[in-house]
């Protein structure tokens, strides 16, 4: 299993010499998030079976995020580890405050 560090290194190697400017990476990431939203729209609003396309767009978003992180020399794995620790601290409170309603909404919307 590749780590986020491995993915950043691999992508940096593959894209070597054809990196976008940093701003291009931001715009590219937004473009891919828009395409991801389009797939969710097709599935949720129009009942289309597009799980493969959704997975492809999820991968595009990850590639875009990694490009952005690489262009700013951000250690995504390290940033993720810090963030998930902060989130873990909040989970008991969120579970108590929102858990029941979110369960109800999942039952209604998913
Ligand atoms: Mg795409």
Could you please describe the fold and organization of this structure?
- Helix 1 (4-14) crosses helix 3 and helix 2 (22-44) packs antiparallel against helix 3.
- The protein is mainly α.
- Helices cover 81% and strands 0% of the residues.
- The protein has 2 domains: 1-74, Helix Hairpins (Orthogonal Bundle); 76-110, no CATH class.
- The structure holds magnesium ion.
- Residues 32, 35, 57, 60 line the site of magnesium ion.
Brief overview:
The protein is mostly helical. Helix content is 81%, strand content 0%.
Give the radius of gyration: 17 Å
Poorly predicted regions: none
Helix content: over 70%
Q: Average pLDDT across residues? A: 97
Output the helix-strand order: HHHH
Overall structural class, as computed from helix and strand content, comes to mainly alpha
As for the number of domains, it is 2
At CATH level 2, the architecture of the largest domain is Orthogonal Bundle
Q: In DSSP terms, counting alpha (H) and pi (I) runs of 4 or more, how many helices?
A: 4
What is the terminal-to-terminal distance?
Answer: 30 Å
Overall, the morphology is globular
> Biggest sheet, in brief?
none
CATH class of the largest domain: Mainly Alpha
Strands, total number: 0
Bound molecules: magnesium ion
Highlighted features:
110 residues, mainly alpha, Helix Hairpins, 4 helices, globular, binds magnesium ion
Produce the secondary structure layout:
Blueprint lengths: L3 H11 L7 H23 L6 H21 L4 H34 L1
The structure holds magnesium ion.
